[in-house]
Amino acid sequence: MSKFELYLKLGTEHILDINGLDHLIFMLAIASVFSIANWKKLLIMVTAFTLGHSLTLVLAALHVVSVNMELVETLIPITILLTSLVNLWKKGREQHTIVLYILMVLFGLIHGLGFSNYFGELVAGDQDLILALFSFNLGIEVAQILVVLSILIIHIIFEKIFSVKRESWILFMNGGVFFLALSMIIG
């Protein structure tokens, strides 16, 4: 396996790892307010998150940032909780304002901090640091796109087969995300 394939696989596994549900729950919150018709806006949202996440990983790999992991582990579910609250507040309207894109970049920075120490150790001493960063972040982006695409497909199934209204879908998904994030904060 080449370095590119290795880091691509690690980036994909980072998102799809069932032990790290925070990313999956966050992607659920982001995707739950979008319809398949607005997939481009959703892709921009996911990519904004990835850019923030990637920046943090670059800074960690270059030993520019050092963070209190306990604080970061508290901030991650707070970002998820805030995203669900924004979605509930704007229930039924597409989430595509510039403010939300900026929030996604900022939340991506925080989520990236949660993985930054491990990633910094992973690439320490690697002569192909740019290749490692690029392929790992590409793996993250590919996995996130697969997750949000799956959520959109599930939404279509619930809408078409079970006649679930869009506002009910948003309320149910973000209510669940809110309580999962709250339990992560408390527990």
Question: What are the defining features of this structure?
Answer:
187 residues, mainly alpha, 7 helices, Put_HupE_UreJ
What this model shows, in words?
The chain is mainly α. The chain has one domain. It has seven helices and no strands. The N and C termini lie far apart (39 Å). The relative contact order is 0.23.
Short description:
With 187 residues, the chain is mostly helical. It has helices at residues 3-16, 21-31, 39-61, 69-89, 98-123, 129-160, 166-186. Helix content is 79%, strand content 0%.
Topology overview:
Blueprint: H1 3-16, H2 21-31, H3 39-61, H4 69-89, H5 98-123, H6 129-160, H7 166-186
Helix pairs in contact: 1-6, 2-4, 2-6, 2-7, 3-5, 3-6, 4-5, 4-7
Q: What fraction of residues sit in β-strands?
A: under 5%
The whole-angstrom Rg is: 17 Å
Distance between the termini: 39 Å
Number of domains: 1
**Uncertain residue ranges:** none
Structural class from helices and strands?
Answer: mainly alpha
Number of helices: 7
Helical content (DSSP H or I, runs of 4+) = over 70%
H/E topology pattern:
HHHHHHH
Q: Which term fits the overall shape? A: globular
Q: Work out the oligomeric state of the chains in this entry.
A: single chain
Q: Please, what is the average pLDDT?
A: 90
Major sheet: none
- List how many beta strands DSSP finds: 0
